[in-house]
Every structure is written in C-alpha cells, then in structure tokens.
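Journal club side-thread
Mid-discussion, someone asked how the predicted structure for our own chain would compare to the paper's figures. Pasting it here so we can look after the session.
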Amino acid sequence: MKLNPSILFCVIGTTLVLSSCGGSAPSSSSSSTGGVGTTTGNVAGGGVPKFNHVFIVVEENHSYGAVIGNPNMPYLNGIATANGLATQYFADAHPSLPNYFELTVGEGLSITGLEGDAYSAVVTQDNVVRALTGAGKSWKSYVEALPSVGYLGGDTAVYVKRHNPFVYFSDIQNSASQAGNIVPFTQFSADLSASTLPDYSFIVPDLNDNAHDCPVGMSTCSDTQKLTAADQWLSANIGPLVTSPAFQNSLLVVVFDEGDLADVQHIGGQVAAVIVSPLAKAGYKSTTLYEHASTLRLMLEGLGVTDLPGGAATAPSMSEFFK
C-alpha cells in the first residue's frame, strides 16, 4: 500500500504528531475484562504456557470493526468466540512492512522510516530468527505463491516481498541453510501430515487470500468478497491444523497487519487479533491495549525463548489469555 504524505508524516511521528493525526500514544495499562465464564485481568501468579508449536497467520489492511462480528467471516469469528480475542489491539504503522517487522524484530518505523514498503536494505537488528536459533528452536516461514524454497527476490504475481519479513534479515541473507526455512505454503500440509512442523511457523497467505486484493479470478470485487475469500482460506488451510493432534499443546495467532488506511488510532489502526489454543481461556475478551510487539513476545515466551528482540522485551505480556 502506498501512502499520501500526510499519512507518512503521521506514522513516523511522536506523541505530539499522533494528536494531530487523530491517534494517541500507546498506554501501558494492563487492565482487562474477561469474556463469559472468565476472570478479569492477568493470570494470577501465572504466565504464558510452554507450547510445542506456535503459529501466526497475518492478514491484510482491515480494521477491527470490519472483521469482528462480520457474518461473511464465520470461521475467524467462530475461533475468536471460542478462544481469545484482543479487543484493544492496534497496529504500529501504515503501510505493511513496518508492522511485519514489529511482529518479527520488535521494531518497525525505526527501521523503514519514510521508505515504508519500499524499504530494501538488510535488517541487522536482533530478530525472531536469531532468537529462535540461539535457543535451539526450529522455524519456517510458509509463504503462499513463493516461487521456490529460499527465494529472496522481489515481487512475483501475487507474492510480495513486503509480506515476508524474513528475507530482509542478515541472518537469512548470509546463510543458505537459514534461507532454506523460507518455503512455499504447499509445504505446510505436508509437514502437518508428516508431523514435522517446526517449533515456530510464520504463515503468509498471498494477495488473493489475505484480504488485500480480490479473490483469484476476479479483477474487481467488493470488500465483502475480499474478506469472505480470506475467511474461506483460513477455514480450508488453518482449520485442519487447529483440529489436528499437533495442535493439542500449541498456539495460533491470527492478526491483521494494519487497519484501514483511514484508521490511524495508535498510528496503525485497531485490528483483530485472535488467540487460539487448547490452553486458552474459552470465550476470553481482553481490553488490554496491545500492539504487535506483544505478539512477538507471546510467541517467543511460549517456546521458552528468553531473547526478546526490540520492543518485545518491554511489551505488555499476553499471559491473561491462558488458563
């Protein structure tokens, strides 16, 4: 997504700039309200459970109100209702790439600056790959429409580089073996069937399936059709994971990278973030203010990784979602 200059000014601003953009500075409040049959607040004396596997799926460019309660997205709303929903979760930026970096580096706009999605340099900061590798954990980025295993090149058809943050990392650029962990999404079902899923999985639907563009075969479409296609993709491709034996002690996060372009609350807009796990509180709704660095922290803590890159080290914990 390309931004007009006024939006670009907003996304790199300070608290003063946020006020002029209609947003506000992030709060460190950790108050929360539980859903039906749940408690209020963080887990008393507890923390994030240790998971066998963690998975994240990133969707595109829709604000919370367009997604949660949308009858055209029955699968996502169904797992949100049954598991955990962050009702005050905000993206960090417009456009996409800084948000993907927040989810994997714990930094975003400080990396891309005004370049946004056009950023093309190598990221040398600590990141999720370095943290996982240092802890002896396995990982893969499963990317739909990726031309080949380890592909580090530019956009091709419905694959776009800016939705695959791993290809920017020096850890990947300098290691063929690490680059080999970036694989086409077709490998996901094979790994699930063979019980060879890695500890950490970053899942990237292509532009037709992540609510960014129209569904395959359509040159023009409504927003409803985009979201319907994204939900159907989740049901067909993530549904089998959630019901599989591999998921019995695992975590799935489904989150949108940013809100609608006009939504500049906390810069990136309010987005849906769904926390799915057999260890999650059923029907839990949090009102704690979260941003993407908290998701990075959650996924690493859930694997017992102590290296929390960038803002993940100080981001609010998401332990309240768990029993």
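Post-session note: Strands lie at 53-59, 84-86, 139-143, 182-184, 200-204, 250-256, 273-276, 284-286.
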